[in-house]
Every structure is written in structure tokens, then in C-alpha cells.
Here is the input.
Amino acid sequence: MVFTPSHPAIRPEYARDPTLSSEEKHLLNEVLFDFARSPLGVREFAAVDDRVMGGSSSSRLLALDGCAAFAGELVLGGGGFASVRAEAHGRWSLAETRGVRIRCRGDGRVYKAVVRMDERPGVSYQCDFWPPATGELVDVDIEWVRCVPSWRGRIVPDAEKLAGERIASFGLMASKFDHHGVPVPTVRGGAFQLDVIMVSALRPSA
Here is the structure.
């Protein structure tokens, strides 16, 4: 199903504007990133690749016409992952949510949504998704209850429960491992590209 937002997105730079209406303030909590309307949102993302572990994968988030492209090269040797991440820094909130919805177009690869609680290194919460390689725009719902706590590719069984109100960052990852730390059977090295149009909050009634 292709998701069409019923309201125009509010750009992040307007988040602290005191003249916003109550409806506009509500929309700020609904849309984290709308790259079709605000392509400069890609500047909030930084690459976090396996080069920090001696690998040679690379990635970045690029502004294209009507979307952002999470693109790069996945090298299976070494850490075998490439990712980008944006910190919240008060620009958006995921309190009272059950997850996020990613409107995207894939290339047949398995990707991960990655969130972290609090603004410090440590456990990340990951959830696999696999948009088809058909060129079709699809909605992918990432629910917090499906996210697996992980540290350096290993599950953390005694990690804190993921709480939306404490989420401090959101990211995307291409990896040779799934969110359980198991090698992805169909993984392949080389160039990848995931086109992302919008990331929005999933409310309990969504």
C-alpha cells in the first residue's frame, strides 16, 4: 500500500516557531523527516560505518529529486555494515508512539531501522525490513515491540525496554547480519540504495 499523507509536513526548522497553530504543532510530532518537501533534512544524518571497526564499507544520505537516498557500498569483510544516523536534539519526539512508518523504495536488500535511547553510545534497537526491488513505493511499519536490543552485533537479553519518549536517535543500516545477529542468507556486497520519502510516527491508533 502506498501511503499518501493527508496533511502537508512541517519542516524541522520551524519546530520552535511560537506562531504555529495547534494542528501544526501536532504535525511536528507526526513527521520526523519529509525529504520530498524538505530535502535539507539529509544534513541531520551522519555516516556511522564499519570503518570504526577496521572495515571498508561506506554510506551517506543524499538529497535526490523527491526523496533522500541512503546509498553506499557494503563490504562483507570486516564489520560488514554501513549506516547513517540522526540525533533528535529536541527537533522531534517519539513519546506516546508505537513505532515509525518509513515510506521508501528498495532494491531488494534487507535493511534495518536503528534507534537508540538517550544521547550516549551503547545499546541500539534494531528492526529488519525488506522493501521489494520492484520500484514501488511502500510503507514499512517499524514497531518498538519488534526491535531487538543489540551491542556490536550481539543481542543484549537484559537490555532496558525500548521507550519511545527516550529515543534520542534514528538511523538506517545495511548489514550482513539481521537484527538477531544472524548472517542474512541473501546478503551481497557492493552498491546499495534505499530511497526514503518520509519517516513519520506511528500512533497507537495508526
